[in-house]
Every structure is written in structure tokens, then in C-alpha cells.
Amino acid sequence: MTINGEKYKDQLYALQVELCRFQAWLQATGERVIVVFEGRDSAGKGGMIATITERVSQRIFQTVALPKPSDREATQWYPQRYVPHFPAAGEVTLFDRSWYNRAGVERVMKFTEEDRIQLFLDECAEFERAISDSGIHLVKYWLEISQETQRKRLEERIEDPRKHWKLSPMDTAGHRQWYDYSRARDDIFHHTDTDHAPWYIVDSNIKEEARLNCISHFLSLFDYDAPDADLPELPAIDRAKAYDDAASIADRRFIPQVFRED
Predict the structure, then answer these.
(1) How many alpha carbons fall within 13 Å on the CB side of residue 48?
(2) Contact (Cβ atoms closer than 8 angstroms) between residue 55 and residue 92
(3) How far apart, in whole angstroms, are the C-alpha atoms of residue 57 and residue 200?
(4) Domains of the chain
(5) Which of 7, 29, 69, 254 has the fewest C-beta atoms under 10 angstroms from its C-beta?
(6) Which helix (H) or strand (E) holds 201?
(7) CA 175, CA 45: separation in Å to the nearest integer?
(8) Rounded to the nearest 10 degrees, how much is the dihedral formed by the CA atoms of 256, 258, 261, 262?
């Protein structure tokens, strides 16, 4: 059953309030969190992250979506370019794709030799153990969609000019190579679904449901108790300094009010 618009807004509001409480707890305790979002093209990773960060401080909830490696980065240890983005005390890093590019996109598109992919898969669990052992909470989500959902979303990107920027040749190639991605996903789970860094699969065929379910699950992983908010009282304006401040800028350059509330 899908969620109607008003119900979705109410449920999302409640979860975003909890995210703000979680943020306060993070700041008070200095805990560190990494959240990895993986999945096929058009699975909804960007929308999920935007929903999470909509009402919290983006200085605390930091989104990382790295481009293609530079020539220098291509010569480094593969996870090396992700490490500088790891959180400090009281921060959350949200990775829109991550070091798993090596075993996902790069593998399917044959951008990387198979022996290097196998080396990554063999080492990844220990890399993530080191992350967890350092005290960072590592949470990994795989956003799963059906073939039909991916086709529909990619067609929407083709038809809607507002979404053309989301299109790349790899999107259509990835749809054609659906089963190669499925096998790559299965291999990732086989090697890296561990007790210290498990994978959680999010049914993402309906975006609104996926967002509510994922945020709710994320919050459930932490035993957080937010400190009471120290809210100030709003003081009265000091009328002793009053002047006609609206008139003082009346002749300045205001933008045209093309859109007005009726």
C-alpha cells in the first residue's frame, strides 16, 4: 500500500524531528557516523540523502559524491580518496556511492581489471573492520529496485527536461547490463556483508516508502537520548533605535515581483 501525500508529510515531519534530536545527541557525545548508499542508477540514492539532510545542519550531515578519480587518485590505494571525507566528532558522512564503485560500476563497465576487483573484495571487510574499530559507526544501505522501476525512471529522465542532467551513457548501459549488476551486487554481499559492517537492503520501488523506512531504520540503530534544547526567549525589538528602515531602502534595486501570492 502506498502512502498518501498528507500522511507521508506527517510521518516525514516526525522522522525529521527525530533526526534533529539525533543530531543534538551527536554533538553532545561526539559520536561519528558513516552512511553508505549504494544501488543501481535511478535507485533513489540522491533523493534519499536529500530527504535526510533537508532539516538538519549540513555542516554536521555532510554529503560526499566523488567524481571520477583524477590521474593522481587513480594511482593511490583505492579507498584512499574517501578517507579524507570521514567524519570528525559529532559528524555524519553520507556517501552517495562509495568505495564500492570498484566492485560495482567499474566491474560491470570493465573499467578495472578483474584481479584488482578481487583484491578489493578480499580487503574490503578488513578495511571496514578498521573503520568500526576506530569507533566510527558504519551503516551500509543498498537501495533495491525492479527492472520495471528502473526503466520507468530512466524514461522519465529522457522525457523531462528537468532531469536531463541526470542522464549519462552509463545509465542506459547499466539498464542493458541488469544481470551483470545483479551478479556484482551478489558478490559484494558475499564478501562484505559482515557482523561489524552489515548490508541493509531497502525496497526502493516507491520512493516515499523507501525514505520513511530507511530513516526509521537508521535511527533505530542508535540508542540516543537527545539533551534538552536550550531555547532562548525572543526579545522585543529595541524601539529606542527606531527609524523608517523600510523607506531607507525603498529606492534600491528590488527584483521584479513576477510571482505574487493571490
Answers:
(1) 32
(2) no
(3) 25
(4) 5-228 (3.40.50.300)
(5) 254
(6) strand 199-203
(7) 16
(8) 120
